[in-house]
């Protein structure tokens, strides 16, 4: 095969796969020209080796004896050292990382991380360690290999020298997945319970959260850690002999599978996790230090100068007032403005003058004006009738609506909600059923409806419509409007049988009256199919 062709590796891989098709993942693993033969015992191993050599000879493929290793329990393959104890990194690759010179430019960082990423599954806190280094690779980031970056670089090299042995995954044994999340990272450990009863790690993962994920609440971050663990290790966790034991330090996740109310994000995760046989178990964080320590490292948290996190510009900072201070400040500003001050004074004075004039026309007001025996009712110096110190507003000439406009719609009022508006009104005014009046007024306020989010109970579950017993027993109808003018018709009445889905299209116009609509039904539907039991619009 000539060198330099872009599809040469793929073509050669397809060629060797066709040679060992029935042996792949049975006793042979092939990656291009690297062939690994494995067996349960020496007797079968000899047969497998002979069969592989026979097929190589049959297809005129040759293996150099100097590059081959036969009948070995431990072997180096594709950068890994395989042994009965588990999986470790190749010593040559580890030495290359240990001897890597200090980076001097962004390309050096990218080369180092690209080489180290291949072994990230061996490093329990890999993504947390490399955070300062990855920040240097971002677009338009200034080159500053600070002491923090140097510490991260040396710590990563040390982590490769002390990486643990990862045990081989064994199907049919209990599996444990431990996850944890902090404000800025998530992590997990995949372990199995070996036949000797020891729990040994199979793989690690840990990474910092993206900008949108930083906004998740604690519950969603902990659930994200579980979701990503099952997505990363899906080939291990699908179809286990025992339910996967998921250990988390967030107690609420124990009831996640039985929760009836989920957000859209949680529903997507729940749908994905439903394909796995798992049990979520709570374990206090103080007793589960391994994944917990991966997500709470000091170098993951924001530092001065980081662009990942918003920094406040001192020029944009403003003092924060309490509601009373703000109201007083606004009122003072309005009173300093001649036009607004005149408008405020005129509005209140005119309102009080109209209330005073309406007292003589109101039955309740006339009763208490003539009878001063009840101490709760008093008349002030301006001639206004007061109940418990508040001005009584008679139900005449929309006076109560004017009070609401002053206390709710006025610039100083601010379109508050029902309770706040009621409080503002009852400071000065009162009338019977004031609470109901204000509730209805605020609900009908268009400005509030546009600016505020409606909060209501969840809508009921959708229910399937009953299946009709026979054709044309139940129909639905609607109009197709805004069509091009065809002379006499501007719309189409569509009548559909809900059982057979047969449709009738009747030309009409958008100014049709009820008698005319009934005549169309009588002529085009009832005369042909009879009168239906149900009709839906």
Biggest sheet details: 5 strands, mixed
Shape: elongated
What topology, given as strand order, has the largest sheet?
A: 8-7-6-9-10
Can you tell me the number of structural domains? 5
Q: Estimate percent helicity.
A: 25-40%
What radius of gyration results from the CA coordinates? 39 Å
Number of strand elements: 18
Which structural category do the helix and sheet elements fall into? alpha+beta
Number of helices: 19
The average pLDDT value, as a whole number, equals 79
Q: State the end-to-end distance.
A: 70 Å
Q: Per DSSP, what share of the residues sits in E-state strands of 2 or more residues? A: 15-25%
* Low-confidence sequence ranges: 297-321
GO molecular function: endonuclease activity; hydrolase activity; nucleic acid binding; RNA-directed DNA polymerase activity
Protein name: Reverse transcriptase domain-containing protein
Keywords: Endonuclease, Hydrolase, Nuclease, Nucleotidyltransferase, RNA-directed DNA polymerase, Transferase
Pfam families: Integrase_H2C2, RT_RNaseH, RVT_1
């Amino acid at each position: 095969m000539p060198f330099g062709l872009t599809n040469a590796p793929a073509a050669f891989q397809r060629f060797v796969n066709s040679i060992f098709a029935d042996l792949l993942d049975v006793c042979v693993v092939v990656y291009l020209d690297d062939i690994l033969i494995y067996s349960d015992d020496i007797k079968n191993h000899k047969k497998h080796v002979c069969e592989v050599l026979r097929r190589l000879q049959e297809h005129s493929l040759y293996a150099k004896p100097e590059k081959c290793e036969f009948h070995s329990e431990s072997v180096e393959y594709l950068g890994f050292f395989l042994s009965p104890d588990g999986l470790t990194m190749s010593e040559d690759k580890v030495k290359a990382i240990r001897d890597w010179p200090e980076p001097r430019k962004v390309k050096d960082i990218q080369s180092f991380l690209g080489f180290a990423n291949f072994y990230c599954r061996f490093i329990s806190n890999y993504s947390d360690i490399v955070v300062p280094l990855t920040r240097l690779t971002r677009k338009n980031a200034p080159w500053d290999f600070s002491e923090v970056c140097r510490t991260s670089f040396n710590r990563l090299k040390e982590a490769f020298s002390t990486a643990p042995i990862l045990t081989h995954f064994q199907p049919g044994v209990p599996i444990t997945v431990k996850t944890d999340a902090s404000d800025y990272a998530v992590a997990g450990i995949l372990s199995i319970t070996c036949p000797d009863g020891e729990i040994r790690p199979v793989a690690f993962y840990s990474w910092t959260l993206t900008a949108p994920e930083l906004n998740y609440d604690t519950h969603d971050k902990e659930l994200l850690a579980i979701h990503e663990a099952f997505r990363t290790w899906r080939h291990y966790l699908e179809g286990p002999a025992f339910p996967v034991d998921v250990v988390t330090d967030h107690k609420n996740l124990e009831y996640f599978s039985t929760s009836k109310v989920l957000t859209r994000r949680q529903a997507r995760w729940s749908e994905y996790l439903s394909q796995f046989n798992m049990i979520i178990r709570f374990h206090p964080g103080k007793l589960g230090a391994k994944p917990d320590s991966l997500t709470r490292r000091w170098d993951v948290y924001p530092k001065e100068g980081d662009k990942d996190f918003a920094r406040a510009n001192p020029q944009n900072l403003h003092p924060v007032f309490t509601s009373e201070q703000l109201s007083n400040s606004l009122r003072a500003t309005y009173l300093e403005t001649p036009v607004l001050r005149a408008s405020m004074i005129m509005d209140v004075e005119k309102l009080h003058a109209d209330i005073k004039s309406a007292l003589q026309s109101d039955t309740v007001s006339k009763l208490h004006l003539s009878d001063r025996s009840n101490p709760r009712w008093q008349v002030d110096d301006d001639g206004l009738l007061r109940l418990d110190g508040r001005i009584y507003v008679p139900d005449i000439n929309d006076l109560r609506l004017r009070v609401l406009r002053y206390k709710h719609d006025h610039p100083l009022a601010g379109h508050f909600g029902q309770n706040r508006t009621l409080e503002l009104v009852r400071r000065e005014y009162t009338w019977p059923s004031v609470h109901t009046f204000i509730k209805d007024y605020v609900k009908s306020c268009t400005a509030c409806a546009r600016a505020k989010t409606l909060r209501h109970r969840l809508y009921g579950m959708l229910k399937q419509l009953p299946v009709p017993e026979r054709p044309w027993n139940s129909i639905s109808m609607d109009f197709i409007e805004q069509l091009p003018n065809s002379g006499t018709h501007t719309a189409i009445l569509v009548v559909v049988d809900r059982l057979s889905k047969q449709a009738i299209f009747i030309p009409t116009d958008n100014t049709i009256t009820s008698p005319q609509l009934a005549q169309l039904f009588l002529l085009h539907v009832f005369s042909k199919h009879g009168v239906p039991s149900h009709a839906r619009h």
